[in-house]
Amino acid sequence: MASDAALLHVEERIIMYRSLKMRIEPDSEQRKVIEASFRYHCYVYNALITACKSYHRSNGRLPSQFDLSKLCTRIWNNCPFLHGYLYQNAMNETAKRVLQAFSKCGENRRRMERRNRRKSKGKTDKENTELTGSPETGLACPRFRKPSRFHSYTNPLHREVFTERNGRRMMKVSKVKGPVRCYNQKAPVPGIPKTCTIEKVDKGTHTEYYACLSCWDDIERRRGDEYLSGRSLDAVGIDMGVSKTATLSNGTVYGNDHLYSKLLDLFRKGHEAFSTMLPGTPGYRKARSRLNHLYGRLRGIRRNNVETISRQIVDNFDIICMEDLPVRRLRSKSKGKRMTNAYDDASLGMLRRRLIDKAIEAGRRIILVDPRWTSQVCCGCGACVKKGLEVRTHVCPECGLVMDRDLNSAINILIWGLTGNPFPERWDE
Length: 429
Prior knowledge:
By secondary structure, the protein is an alpha+beta fold. Helix content is 43%, strand content 19%. The protein folds into 2 domains: 16-217, no CATH class; 225-428, 2-Layer Sandwich (Nucleotidyltransferase, domain 5), CATH 3.30.420.
């Protein structure tokens, strides 16, 4: 069941990148420079997209990172108005972003083609072209960005980032005169800052600015085998789902609060008020600000739930067995809008990523288990008891075991993860 490729553990001498995000408060002059930097990075981004399209028409492929970096040098030399607002190596970071956008668009096109291949049968050539893209170019292109929709840019760091003024920690931002006030005064910097990404969030009535530092953590992590050897190990199996976000094999249950359904009336009222406002008016900005705050509250609570659950599990257990869930495919098979919203509230993909990240940092061991049949097999006798999603209680006719369906699945995940025994082939029949 658990192959060698699915067994994740901390290797010796692990060194990693860690990030620190903090809100910054620039003054009026600093704000003008930051906003100008956003506009000029957007200008470079759109110019590089045009260059990639032209290069693909001539050569049949996208340019490399080195080719785009040479083009950024030419743009830098021919556009002296950029020199006061961005560095040349910051343009190289924008070039990386352009190539990532082309790669993501190509993946999305291939996924759409696979999904729409059956739908395109019997349709006209024009309808097929709308489904799969233009056959002339053969290139899935990202959209050009308006300056108002360009929300982040990245600067490489080659000097000290922080300074102190009147006992407060201040941040130095590239091309911005003077230090910028920042929050998270007591948050330690997790390593040596290498890049700084400036982000802005439009709240309607005001704009919030954030700085995200990517830091090189040169502290050698403890190796998992050394940490786990010579002590009694605590192992746990985790079943993730919709009705309950996570069920542990020891009986602990982390419920799904279905937050979006509880806030649905507020979202409807907010969207109704927003739709009646005239764009550009104070009422329009106020309604948009209320919606942004409401969605920000939803994102914050979901993320807090994920961080709390993952931290408790990693702190209390040494070996963590969990399902290797294809969350996107699972969500696409939802049976209704309410079930889809429950998937979003559970944040299963984010929970899995945070569990793996924290386990690697803490020296724990993660075992990924094939999710097939985990809820159908009896954890007591191994009999296969098939049941639909609507059946939430496992009742075994062979041994008489009665327990919650998710708890039975969590125990199976723990057993299969520790033993690595595959399930019998007859269950696939």
